[in-house]
Structure formats: C-alpha cells, structure tokens
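Record pair follows.
FIRST:
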Amino acid sequence: MANSCLQLSGFLLGSLGWVSILIATATNDWVLLCKYSFNTCKKMDELGAKGPWADCVISTGLYHCVSLTQILELPAYIQTTRALMVTASILGLPAVGILLMSMPCINLGNDPQSTKNKRAILGGVLLLLVAICGLVSTIWFPIGAHQEQALMSFGFSLYAGWVGTVFCLLGGSILTCSSDSSPPSARPYQENNHFYYSKQGGGPNAGRLHHQPRQERPRLRGGRRTEIQLRRRHAHSSRLNELTVY
C-alpha cells in the first residue's frame, strides 16, 4: 500500500513538472531587461522581456515581440536553452505514458508486479533526465542574458521552469527509489511469525518447511518372498516346541 502511494505521488509530481516545463518552453517571459527602474522603463517603453524564441517590448497597452530567427547569429546560451527545453518536453511524453501504465490501478493483460516496477523505474529515470535538462536551461539562460544586457528581474516563464524542474526531480527520485524490480519469488515473506522462501527462491528454512522427510516403513531384505519364508519357519518352530512339551 505504501509503495503504491509513493508511485502515485511520483506520477503526479512528474506530470505537473512536465506541464510546467512545457509552459516555460512555449513562452518568452524568462527575464525582464531594463537599465532603469521598472516604472521609468515602462514609461519610456524600454522595458523588455527576453526568452529563447523572441525579444519582447512591454509598455502600457502594448506587448510586441520579435522572433529570433537568425539561428547562426544567436549566442550559445540561447541555442543551448532551446535544445535542452525541447528535449525535456519530448522526453516528458513517454515518461508520463510509461508511468501511467505502471500504476497499480491499471492492468495490461496479466502483467506481473515486477514488470510494473520496471516501468516505474524507467519512467523515473526519464523524469530525472527532464529535470537535468530544465535545470541547466533555467540556470544558464539568466546568467547569459545578464552578461549580454542589464538584467532587472526574472519572468514567470523562468519561475515555471524552476517549479517544473523541482517537481520532475522529486517525482523521478521517488519513483526510482520506491520501486523494486526484483521478482516476488526471490524475496522472503512472513506468515505465522516465520520467515521463509518460496520454492523458486529457496532459502534457509525451505528444507524444513517445504521438504519434510517422510518416515518409511522398514522393509525386510529379500522382499515379499523372504517374509513368507520367515513366517513358515516361525510356525514350524512353534509346532516342534508343542511336540516337545507333550
């Protein structure tokens, strides 16, 4: 029961983290750029927002963006952020699908529990990869933007990326640590305050609990024929004793 709750918690955290990564990837309010204060830059129409895909200008009643289409002229931190965020968004889809098939409430045919645990571990590893991609992107981008222009504050897209990174990291860690891929036959279980192993797994008490020695009746040497001869000899000796007494 506890293992199922942990897997469900990891799945929910990973799904929310992946959605946050998608929001951060699709939007451009990563950092706010301005040389002066916020109100001064807004009045002078110099408040800008920068993201992996566009540069935007923010003013009263105006939000205008210019797409960054010069791929070869873009700095390295923008190209790296694009590649890592797209990779994280793509990896999140199979991760969520695999984790959905590993949930205890969903059965695909006659899959054993060990197969579901392996799926949960694989989904957790994919979530950890998503978290690593998001972590590198959300740290490198504001540093590169600050070195290039005057950075004033962070935008909501960057916060969404940080939240998604933390959720994916927690969900992946919970899934990889709480799932056991070993088959149940190889693990000891308890019944009536005694630990023992199944026949497939074996164990120190397997011989005592599963292979009790049978007590066999002693057999006379020579089989059935020898037993009949001994009975005849015993009857003959009894008759001789009776004749001797008379």
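SECOND:
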Amino acid sequence: MDLWNIKDLEPPPVTSCKACTKQIDVRLLHAVLQEGVNFFSNQHHLFTEAALLSRSVYRFKVKFRSSKDFKIVEKLNHILRTYQRMHISAALNVLLVTIPQNYKANNTYMLTKNMFDYVLVRLQGVGKLLCATLEACKEVSTAMQQRLRLGHFWKVAIVIFATAARVFVVAKNALKYCCELYGNLLPYSSSLGNSGVQWLPEGYSFPAHLDEWLEIDWLDLDNVIDILDDESILFYVKLTDSDDFYS
C-alpha cells in the first residue's frame, strides 16, 4: 500500500536536531505553516455540509437501502468522514510550535526532516481524498438529477443535490490550497536534517508538483456553464405539495 494511503500512519517521534545550513527562512516557514493551520482549522463550511449529508444518510438509509443512487451518497459521506479524521491542521501545528524564533546555522535546534516529510505525505493523502470527494460529488449530482426526472422523492433529491454542489465548491477550493501549501513546504524538506533513523522508506521521493501528481490540470480552470436559449433542454420541477419527503 502506498504511504499516503495508510489510514493510521504512524508519525515519527517529535524531536529536534542542530541546524547545519543557512538556507532556511524561518519567518517565511512560520508564516506558511501558520496560514495552513488557520485554513484547515476553519473549515466549518465543509464540515457543516458534511454534517447535513451525514444526517440525510442516517435518516433515509433504511428507506433507500436498495437504491443504487443512495449507495453513491453513502460513498461521499464516507469520504468526508475520512477527511475529517485526518486532522491535518494538528500535524501542521506540531511543526509550527517547534520552529525557533531566532535561527542561526550550527547554533539552533530545528525540527527534523522526518517530521516535515510526515506532513508532506499527509498532504498527499489530503489531496487524494479531496479528489475523491470531487468525483463523488459529480456522481451524486448525476444520480440525483435522474431521480428528479423521475419525480420520485424529489424533495430528498433536491436537498442532497444542493448539499453535494456546496461540498464540491468548498472541496475544490481546499484542494487548490492544499496543492499551493505542498509546493510552499516541499523545498524546506531538503534543507532539514535528521537525528535518528530515516522515517521515509528507501527510494521514496516526493512529486515536484502535487497537482500534476494528482492529475488535476483542470484545477485552475473556472467552471463556466453555457446556458442555451432553448426551452426544450431546460428541466423544470413543479413545486407542488407532496408528502413523499416525510413518508
């Protein structure tokens, strides 16, 4: 199994070693890590939508236990729960609190390369999870559109469709930031030293660009929807009174 794909990846011990290079901008590193901690600690928008989706799954899992489209919703819910359990902000904070205020080569103890590489691996895992989230959101949207066309439990379909759409927007923004953070942190890995056994497996190398490794060259493209002036392709939902949402 790939290192980034290990669910309960054991982190290296928190320790320090004497710095041996002048090529470390401590202030910039501190600012990058602080920004990362702030970003991943304040994802209440994503977690709110995840909670709404989880509640929907809990409420309707018996009613739709044999529906293939609801299995896709459960898949998205599982991915979001896994993402929440990664606690990437805590891993970044461990690095942040170990950075010294004053840095002098050969006279300052810095965090180890092992600790830094662990965070880079976790960022790879976060990127993969966010990619899986986006793909699952697309599948959920397609499935809910089909249910809307049938008109069967359309109120439930609208709620789940809207939730998946909001999750997609927030997750795409998080993925874009994850790639930027990875690119900002990667150069520091080669400047740090170790005080013990190397944590990374022999021959393991980090990709230079996380977005290329994830094969998401579309990430920087804005979503543009061309709306044609043709009523035949528009889909209307007649909002009539119905008890199917509560039955």
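COMMENT: The radius of gyration is 22 Å.
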